[in-house]
Amino acid sequence: MSWSISDTTQSQETIRSQGFLSCFRLNYWGYSTVNYFSPMLRYSSVGTSNCGRDAINEVKILVREAHKQGIEVFLDVVVNHTAEGNEKGPIISFRGIDNSVYYMLAPKGEYYNYSGCGNTFNCNHPIVRQFILDSLRYWVTEFHIDGFRFDLASIMTRGSSLYDAVNVYGKPVKGDSLTTGTPLGYPPLIDMISNDPVLSGVKLIAEAWDAGGLYQVGSFPHWGVWSEWNGKYRDVVRQFIKGTKGLSGAFAQCLCGSPNLYQREGRKPWNSINFICAHDGFTLADLVSYNKKHNLSNGEDNNDGENHNNSWNCGQEGEFVSLPVKRLRKRQMRNFFLCLMVSQGVPMIHMGDEYGHTKGGNNNMYCHDNNINYFWWDKKEAAATDFFRFCCLMTKFRSECECLGLHVFPTAERLQWHGHHPGKPDWSNLWLFP
């Protein structure tokens, strides 16, 4: 279940008239952490009141009231990097405490940049991993947070600058290298989180990749308790629905909860967090409206953001298109949402996709605190008899259909596959992920 608090009621026409190329840019997402034990004051209604303590109480009240409505609250945490940039960045906190402990450093003092943000938090150093554990425990015990989604979680599996398995486990660990940044088979931080008496009772979700090229979807060290953002589900579904050939087998795996990724080692369908879109990338409406990213308003000459989006504009680029293209786009959006709702695993919906929110083709809106990122209540009302109604009905259908929330992967006894003709699926030109 998703929710949003926003004070905007402005329409698309208002947004287009604002001219975002000249607007002020700031860290809207809050992904450059300085203090891991406090909420960002800018997000609160009370601001700096009572030296920030009122903001803490506001978050606690929010979680309490959400729980009364049956809504769990997850915290999106970024322990892969901090706000201090690269080795030439400012001294704000950790660099001044102990630069060599808190960051992954090369021999001459340069920062390893597996995060894409200039630095990499030295997660598996004994001091740093205890610090991260204390922070997570604080949010659970003080705020009653129900779970965490870890941004670029693969960084948490990399060997620290001073990693030594003998000091961690008392003996060498086969397959683990002492090289800084090498992926560890048994990363101490993940081990500690997975087996912590406080954190073992909450839900843990990994974004199982990082900006350094480490991709662990289906292979993230899990101890039986971690779920993953299923990036392979996203990529296969996007390609299949836009018409890429040879994906029928991979698409079938997605519908079944990706057993090719999660069935081994006794994992379950709920280990797969299925999604089509997230805050990072195109919205659902933009996925069917743009072939290319349009990020000029970010001030980086359109060089930022993902280039490989697996999107299709249905024949014309942008918002102002012919009626046949608009109809096709609406059908495609329904196809995407239908697929998400009938797939085994846990469906994740990007807020605003249920009414067709557009960001004008910008797939990296981290720096805009304006209406292009805000929830458009007026457009939601306008979509109440159209796509939003469809999403509500599909969500209701899933919740009422017992076979769509299985705790085990479906077997051949429970499945019937069809192609252009009943009972005759076309499995030719299969492409299955390893």
Automatic annotation (TrEMBL):
UniProt keyword list: Chloroplast, Hydrolase, Plastid, Transit peptide
One of the record's GO cellular component terms: chloroplast
Record flagged with keyword Transferase: no
Subcellular location: Plastid, Chloroplast
One Gene Ontology term of the molecular function aspect: isoamylase activity
Keyword Plastid: yes
Protein's GO biological process: carbohydrate metabolic process
Family: Belongs to the glycosyl hydrolase 13 family.
The name this protein goes by in its record: isoamylase
Organism: Acorus calamus (Sweet flag)
The organism's taxonomic lineage, starting at the top: Eukaryota, Viridiplantae, Streptophyta, Embryophyta, Tracheophyta
